[in-house]
Amino acid sequence: MSERPIRRDFASRPADPEHWIKAADVAPEHRPGATFTARLTIDVTPDLRGRIKVAAFRRGVTVAEMLRDLLAREFPLTSGDQP
Questions:
Q1: What was the pLDDT predicted at 83?
Q2: 56 near 65, Cβ under 8 Å?
């Protein structure tokens, strides 16, 4: 019987955690598509989630884009902050 190929699921743990942790130190320009390097998780009600999704759709943007803009407006860089 042939073995099934190993599938890496979205939330699977890396085989080599040390390498995975150190990979985050690589500059974003050396990692294609890695402009955003942190994930923020919040708990919202299903009703609020629906309203957010509808608002983003009406604006023609993704929920992530809309929330990034919102957070950037609410928490602007102050003098001395790194961009």
A1: 62
A2: yes
